[in-house]
Amino acid sequence: MSALPVIDLKDASSFPSRRVEAWKYSDLRKYLREAPAPSPSAAIPMTGGGPFEGLGGEPMAFVNGRAVGVNTLMACGTQTVRLRLISKAEATGHATTARISARAGAKLLILETHEGEGSAYVAHNRLELDVAHDAEVTRIVLADEPEDAISISQARVRVAPGGRYRQTVVTTGAKLQRLETEVTHLGQGADVRMDGLYALTGARQADLTSVVDHTAADGTTSQLTKGVVRDAGRGVFQGKIIVERGADGTDARMGHHALILSERGEVDAKPELIIYADDVQCAHGNTVGNLDQNALFYMQQRGLPLDEARALLTEAFLIEVVDRIEHEGAREVVREWLTARL
Amino acid sequence: MVAVKETIDAVAALEKYEHGFTSDIDTEYAPRGLNADIVRFISEKKGEPEWMLEWRLAAFERWQAMEEPTWASVKYTPVDYQDLFYYAAPKKKEGPKSLDEVDPDLLAVYAKLGIPLKEQEVLAGVEGAPRYAVDAVFDSVSVVTTFKKELQKVGVIFMPISEALREHPELVRQYLGSVVPVSDNYFAALNSAVFSDGSFVYIPPGVRCPMELSTYFRINASQTGQFERTLIIADKGSYCSYLEGCTAPMRDENQLHAAVVELVALDDAEIKYSTVQNWYPGDAEGKGGIYNFVTKRADCRGDRSKVSWTQVETGSAVTWKYPSCLLKGEESSGEFYSIAITNGHQQADTGTKMVHLGKNSKSRIIAKAVSAGKSDSTYRGLVSVHPKATGVRNFTQCDSLLIGKECGSHTVPYIEARNGSAQLEHEATTTRLSDDQLFYAQQRGLSQEEAVALLVNGFVRDVLQELPMEFAVEAQKLVAISLEGSVG
């Protein structure tokens, strides 16, 4: 059962409005009243190899919703996949569904990029991901889309007992951008780390929504999301951790911290804990604020110009999320990608 | 360690719900069901002015067009609004309401509940001991209000709202519905149409109310809803502390309690509102108990005004309650301290809203939830910062304690920051009662239940400290009683 509403781009009645609790802060219906015209599906040449090209691995690419090669992948052993979701459309819409599974004992690195090259498009990307017993999957998402795009990404992840899942989503937002992850956590030693980062300027919006459902005992989840909002940007974080009856021994932690660096910026957060088992450790923390004035003062006193001091503190604040990426190569690519956009 | 000793005594001595007795009081009812005629009947009974009747009828019309909310995380058998009595009043003899003339049967009820209705009794204590003025509401009417004269000397108006409608209609008209509008929500609209009594408090400018004011609500009649309405106005620079207590008999049916409380704090005024809610929670199988659907809101419309809500929620089968603060004034502040304890089949969906509209307004939320048995407890809260409200600060802490395998505890906070100068912090934890601590306490000679009571009292201490002293003692006992039988 999916806790989050299912969306079909061809059916406008499936577009949630803010009256749907899970979409309270991202009113899709306000931006999209009718189903968009389909994007051109003829073969469109891809440009370059994407931000993660240097790390090699097999490409799995979709252009305007059409799979360039395969759309299903079964990983075994140690493998890297570059999942590229490319939008080259103008004011049209497209949807993709990718299915990836990691077999028992596999070690899979998914380097996912949302590459927006057109404008005002509507993209809907679905990912079904299966992490088998003792498999380890790392998913790193870089979303780089135009400011007038509407983009919805919905990942459904199933983590089998003893499986490990690591996710880091980094985004600069869009007109309306929703990056949704729903994890079914089967516990028994399974371990999930789910991080997010948003850096928003102009009138961009990013919505990082997640549901982690602990259905069995002895699972762990650690979640850290950080964001910086400038101008009239709007950051949304909704994180829900469910501990079902019998899921004893669950250890779940969630943190969301945001900086609003402008007068008109907005951050909406809803960190939820839904708990039906008593032998658990669950906590969440949420802060919204501005840069530490004392630190800024100290840095200026040491001779740094105010702008530089601000930039340094902001980067230091965000980089904690990047530092948690265990794969060194991917971590460095993300760091450079982010620094270039700050 | 007097407090600990008392907790232990309380656990040992008291039965599950000590206020569960019914009293055979000769009662006058309105006809069963709800329609415009019932609204007229209530208004006429109260001798209300014409505008009030119109206000009620408009509310009734709104209510009919509204739908009962379903978003709270509670499940209950729907209320049949046509199968309730909306007005039940103890039949009283003719004449003015001096205490001597109050029905002795009624006085006996209050004596049994331990509520001091006789002024001399309260005065008999040690000199300088805190005094309490009490407004006792029995089903739909206020039966007695103490210390009225003494309060009048300093200009404080403390009386049943039905009386205030006759004696100070201009004040009531100015403020009634100005904090919780008629169409605010389903239960508020229902209350606006059929409310029968409650307290009215007005503290004049610069006056510090000389004693604690309190209202004691008792539902006695069966198949009756209680709809009380409280309105407290603290004029510029004034202060008052208000306490609210409530109990009901044990009955198999679910009874509805839909109250509206409105607080208005003008410049530099402060209101401290404390509740110990001990409505009948239903039996061990979850049969019976009160549905407590309450709208409480404070309007800090003055600069530097302050409202502090403290609540201890131990009763009710289902609770739906969010005491809130609209922080409109500059540098106004709101506080919310809450203990919600659920056991058996109780469900509580409670929390607060802090709406920051004024510059440099501050708020603080400390919510502690303890769930045991098969109960379910949810903290649902909102902290929102308006784009023009610069320099806002908020601190929120929600802690939940779970006792047993079949209970649930949930935290659903909403944080909405619409400008860059706000500083908001929120933290929440959920854990169970530590085995190590229980073991340690038992090893020191406490029984398991005593150990649980001791640890839980420690867990909720931050909130207990905010209660006026007499209430704190009562609350501490309640904490112990509510959790009786929750372990092992």
TrEMBL record, chain A:
Which positions fall inside the SUF system FeS cluster assembly SufBD core domain?
89-317
Name any one Pfam family assigned in the record. Answer: SUFBD_core
GO biological process terms held by the UniProt record: iron-sulfur cluster assembly
- Superkingdom per UniProt: Bacteria
Q: Protein name, please?
A: Fe-S cluster assembly protein SufD
Provenance organism: Brevundimonas basaltis
UniProtKB/TrEMBL annotation, chain B:
Instruction: Give every SUF system FeS cluster assembly SufBD N-terminal domain span.
Output: 148-208
Q: Which residue numbers delimit the SUF system FeS cluster assembly SufBD core domain?
A: 217-459
Q: What top-level branch of life does the organism fall under?
A: Bacteria
Which terms does the UniProt entry file under GO BP? Answer: iron-sulfur cluster assembly
Q: Which family does it belong to?
A: Belongs to the iron-sulfur cluster assembly SufBD family.
Q: What is this protein's name?
A: Fe-S cluster assembly protein SufB
Q: Which organism is it from?
A: Brevundimonas basaltis
